[in-house]
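User: Could you check the structure of this?
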Amino acid sequence: MKIHTRSSAIIGTICLIASLALTTASADEPVAERQQTKVVLTQVATAKNPIAGAAGPGGTVWIAERAGTVRVLGERGLGKPVLDISRETTIDGERGLLGIAFDKNFKHFYISFTNLEGTSTIDEFAVKRGKIQPETRRTVLTQTQPYSNHNGGDIRFGPDGYLYIAFGDGGAGGDPHGYGQNLDTLLGKVLRIDPTGGKPYAIPPDNPFVNDPNAKDEIWAYGLRNPWRFSFDARTGDMLIGDVGQNDWEEIDWASGRSKGGENYGWSQMEGTHPFRGRPEPANHVPPVYEYDRNGLGCSVTGGYVYRGDEIPGLKGQYLFSDYCDGTVRALQMRNGKVTGQSDLGVNGGEVISFVQDGDGELYVLAIGGSVSRIDPA
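Assistant: Sure, the predicted structure tokens are below.
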């Protein structure tokens, strides 16, 4: 999963892209503090280690629990599991059921999990009348993980209709195998595939490395340590990635919705905008649009979403995120891939492990301890 400490030890309950010219906002050089939009967190359900979620058919919200169950959020909280793979996964290290996603028309449902051997696995189910069809299950993609941490595991469909998959650098600490900068592995990358275009999937012909014999065709972006949560702006298509740092810096990376892919976010030669262990900065390094140090309470960034709902007009267009150790929900105001303002929204979600966006663009906060909360106007 996502959790990061100075020694790669487990925290709490978890054994748990701008152009080159863009300036990175940091804790040392803070951007303007904007007037705070007042919000509250309304707890709408309690789950067992909720870890990921997705907007589902018929305006529903589906919530994944780390041990392997998926439940649908209703007026009375979460219903009975609609999927249970708890016998196929394990919660040792940072493993488990790590991500879920629907395709655009809710015809297929995808899960991202580590199997009993620790292998990252993406499986697909057909969906009919809003229900998973278990007999249609098939495995789309697998990736061996050398260690039990930095699995990544987030999955999401982009505005182009392709499935994007985030994998960490394989684990341990300091990227001992150099996977972040190695284009001959899927580790430390964001991938882009067409899951229904081939058996078991197809490679989009415009992926950035399809003509490079020394690179994996699936790669969309690289140089990532543990891209625990990423998302697309529902209006612009921009991609934002919360990449968990090693010892000192947490970062948020950005890529325009018009990007052709191929961004190198620098790990493990860079940690944020800072050389890692004296290594040289890659010539094509795309620095983060925002970073913060770990001198305060923060230790592990939890990427969120650009708010596109209607209930909180003051947050329109702002990117919401948090930190697993700090729990404060924060917002970045951005323009053309540059942070122009930031704010503390004055609410704390606890051990924030993920955000969920519903079909109307409203946002939910998941805490690994169990709470599922909606961000509402105060």
